[in-house]
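One example given next:
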Amino acid sequence: VGQVEEFVEALHKVAEGGTVVDPEVVRQLLRRRRDPLEQLTPREREVLALIAEGKSNGAIAKELVVSEAAIGKHIGNILTKLDLPPTDRTHRRVLAVLTYLRA
């Protein structure tokens, strides 16, 4: 405890039913609100933008002059980096687009 007076004040506040949150904890929580797309490479962002435009893998491959397999790999990387694991209840490609649009 660095500041005894602040500690005693916090104890009184809690004893009266209040809450106390350390400002450093708040700063760290706010820092964690990062852009979820920051982990993507520029090419992955480009692919995600084209997905958001409603383009198919084939159309994206043609526009970027790469193979469909390359686009599939980019999409797999995007879904992994956005932490969108396969499930039976969600469509990961749609969730990735929603993440893109929110960012």
About this structure: The mean pLDDT is 90. The CA atoms of residues 61 and 77 lie 16 Å apart.
